[in-house]
Amino acid sequence: MANIKSAKKRILVTETKAARNKAIKSGVKTAIKKVEAAVAANDKAAAEAALKDATSAIASAGSKGRMSAGHICRVLHYKKLHSHLVIHPAGLHSLLICHTVSHSPL
User: Which residues fall within 8 angstroms of residue 47, CB to CB, at 6 or more apart?
Assistant: First the structure.
């Protein structure tokens, strides 16, 4: 346990940031699961809405520095969020340039 005041504060700040990061990453995972569930249920309207929410959550996590650009590319590529539906997440292209996503920027 730290004895110096600044070290004690640093511990508290680190715990706060870790909790915030965990909540944001958990929200991204939940959003991805909602897209996958809607696609599995063949509900195109719900899948489009869930995809919009998921891309927003992913872009938000990327812009806040919680997820790196490479991690976002892997999520989109391996989860294949960009190919489940006809629509493409236009918001992500302004955030990053991803070599693993096969479609061109909109």
Answer: 35, 38, 39, 84, 85
The C-alpha angle 20, 22, 27, rounded to 5 degrees, equals: 95
What's the rounded Cα separation, in Å, for the pair 13 and 79? 33
pTM greater than 0.85: no
pLDDT at 81: 62
Hey, how many other C-beta atoms are within 10 angstroms of the C-beta on 9? 11
CA distance 92 to 79: 15
What is the C-alpha to C-alpha distance for residues 81 and 93, in angstroms, rounded to an integer?
14
